[in-house]
Amino acid sequence: AISHIHASTICTRTQEPFYSYHWVDDHISVVRAFPGVCEESERSLRLAMAIVFGPSAINETKLTGWHQRLKVLGLEFDSGTRTVSMPYSKITKARQKVHATMNATAITRTEYRSLLGSLRHVATCVRPARTFLQRLRAAEVGHPRSHRVPVTSQVIDALMWWELILQSASLNGVPLQYFTDSQVPDCTVYVDASNYGLAAIDVSRCKYLTYAFTAEEQDLISRFQDGDPNGFDINFRELLNLAFALFAWGSEWSHPRSCIPTHVRFRIDNTSAVAWQSRFSSRNPRARTILRLLALWEVTYNLHFSSQHVAGRSIKLADMGSRITQDPAVANSFRKLTSSWTATQYRRAFAEWTELCATIGIDPYCGSVGQQTFIDTITRFIFQAYERGLRSSSISGLLHGVQHFLSAAGAPSVFGHAQIRMLLKGIRRLDSLPSSKAPIASSGKAFQWFALRDEDVAILDGQGNPTIRPDQSDKVAIRLRGSKANQHGSPTNRILARSGHPYICPVFGALCLKHFRGPAQPSTPIALFVTPDGQQHTVSAARIKFALQHAAHRLGLQSKDYTSHSLRAGGATQMYRRGISALTISSTDTGYRTRSRFTED
Q1: Rounded-to-integer distance, Cα 358 and Cα 32, Å
Q2: Both 355 and 324 in a single domain?
Q3: pTM of the full predicted structure?
Q4: Residues of the chain by 3-state class (helix, strand, coil), percent to 5
Q5: What is the pLDDT of residue 484?
Q6: For residue 487, with 0-12 CB atoms within 10 Å meaning exposed, 13-18 middle and 19 or more buried, which class applies?
Q7: Could you tell me which residue, 522 or 568, shows the higher pLDDT?
Q8: Which residues have CB under 8 Å from 108's CB, separation 6+?
Q9: Higher-pLDDT residue of 409, 256
Q10: Of 54 and 362, which is predicted with more confidence?
Q11: What confidence score (pLDDT) does residue 440 get?
Q12: Residue 586: pLDDT above 50?
């Protein structure tokens, strides 16, 4: 389109002007449905057409009215649901062309171009489908224009991928927000690759994945560095890391009942890998295979991938994880930093399971074990844990750790039999009542020893220097003088980086606390604020409850449905089952527990 430079038309009802001066074949106006705005937008378009082309340029039969659902460029846009979808007739037409091509030995170039055009139209709605066009385009290159294009085995293989894409539910409606770069990710994964292995870190769920290259793979790396074009370069290894993470965690990220895909953002320190994933295209044959797998998994698991390039120092933990086989000191540091993470706990559970299987004489992955032997082994594993004094919740955690490894080997679910479920329910009834812990919240207005002080919180920049500027803040360091598990032990230091969310972020929270507490003493609690009359008050649970209920009332919601009470384990479980992202659950639960701990009750 050729834009005509002209002053914008001013709308009297909104501050956003109309830019109607564009020379295009079709002009589609999209405005907010405020009173009178649609009429003024249409008047602006008519005025622009009359000024540029004359009064006779306006053809009333070519002008349509205002609609929430509109078919534009072969796609159906719905401004009410804010989605774009493929018409069913277009999907049926593409399927017919794919089936006709697969049953033919050769087709004309015109038919082949028509097939590419239909599939390219589908790729505008289903972004991962772009990677499957690359092989089809390559099959056309090198053939004379007058000759027919042969349907080779490579073409049939690519069309089989397209059959799976055309059955995807994503064609029924894709949120418009995923056509922009401003959406907030539901999950952020830090990945890194080296000459020794791969590592993926899911900080929000406290999970990590490491893989050490085999001798054969290290030989491929050495030969590539010596000049052998085998494609096993660092760019491919970074992309391979994404496939490992998705293979391990894709089903956990998936929310099949939700119409909005789960947004997973990968943070990589390699610009080529970011470009390959964003375009779903690469000249590396190995990378093209990985991209096709990523595209298929994105559609299968109802996910949306995006990649962001970051500096290497921002993914230091992932860098350490990819080198744990190179340096024992690095492996020891990585093990200490992730000692309480889920992956470590899963490995401990599977180690206990492996020890039990060794005493019985069966394969721990239960590859050739009968169903009854499998159930009896699980029952014995549960009884051993119960005899050690573990509660039903802890036993379920052990079984989840065992299930994590058995699922990768294709073994059946440990919770799939009624006998196991009944046994766990019976143990739950025998659990003793939980004993009360030491109080973790203050009961009066006076300062308590366990309150988080201002001097215990430091905001650091990328170099590790203290700062209070939001644009330079990179992480926050917290010193816990007495934790819930060790109230009389030595202080524990924690460093929290930015979460990627604009509000649910530890750095943002620390900046707010530092800003609103005013010129108070460093030894006072950090959860202070100064009133307009200069009085200092603590951020109590009652104040938080009042603020939540007041905001709910202003939004027209029931105030009694909102409070500052902490989430229980069952509540978090229900949120997870209903499709709420793990980052939201973790951030909300942590925020409530921290608030009840470091403020007065």
Answers
A1: 67
A2: no
A3: 0.52
A4: 50, 15, 35
A5: 46
A6: middle
A7: 522
A8: 148, 149
A9: 409
A10: 362
A11: 38
A12: yes
| Tokens coding 199 | 């590592």
Measured distance CA(138)–CA(148) in Å, rounded: 15
Residue 419 lies in a domain: yes
Helix 371-387 crosses helix 392-408 at what angle (to 10 degrees)? 140
In this structure, the strands spanning 149-150 and 83-85 are unpaired
The whole-number pLDDT of residue 439 equals: 39
Same domain assignment for residues 194 and 327? yes
Are 329 and 383 found together in one domain? no
* Cβ neighbours of residue 544 closer than 8 Å, sequence gap 6 or more: 564, 595, 599
Residue type, 240: L
Q: DSSP states of 172-198 as a string?
A: G-EEGGGGSS-PPPSEEEEEEE-SSEE
The whole-chain average pLDDT of the chain stands at 77
Report which of 291, 301, 299 is spatially closest to residue 164, judged by C-alpha positions.
Answer: 299
Q: How many CB atoms lie within 10 A of CB 273?
A: 26
Q: What is the amino acid identity at position 591?
A: G
pLDDT of 579 > 60? The answer is: no
- Same domain (yes/no): 20, 62: yes
Sign of CA dihedral 560, 565, 568, 574: positive
Residue span of the structural domain in which 163 resides: 85-177
Cβ contact 502:513 at 8 Å? no
176 contacts 30 by C-beta, under 8 angstroms: no
Determine contact, residues 210/165, Cβ cutoff 8 Å: no
- 58-79 pLDDT tens trace: 888 888 888 888 887 778 888 8
- Given a cut of 80, whether residue 427 has pLDDT beyond it is yes
Q: Name the more confident of 312 and 351.
A: 351
75-78, strands of its sheet edge to edge: 69-72, 75-78, 83-85, 174-175
- 550-573 average pLDDT score: 67
Q: Which residue has the higher pLDDT, 170 or 49?
A: 49
Alpha-carbon distance of 562 to 585, in angstroms, equals 16
Look at residue 130 in the predicted model and tell me its pLDDT: 75
Contacts (Cβ under 8 Å, ≥6 apart) of 132: 119, 158, 161, 162, 165, 292, 295
Residue 73 lies in a domain: no
Residue 570 pLDDT class (50, 70, 90 cuts): very low
Q: Which of 281, 304, 337 is the last residue of a domain?
A: 337
Whether 215 and 285 map to the same domain: the answer is yes
- Report the C-alpha gap between 195 and 323 in whole angstroms: 8
Q: Which amino acid does the sequence have at 442?
A: S
- CA 216 to chain CA mean position, Å: 33
Beta bridge pairs of residue 415: none
Tokens encoding 520 = 């108070």
**Do residues 326 and 458 share a domain?**
no
Return the closest-CA partner of residue 354 out of 366, 341, 344: 366
pLDDT of residue 443: 41
Residue at token pair 């059955």: 167
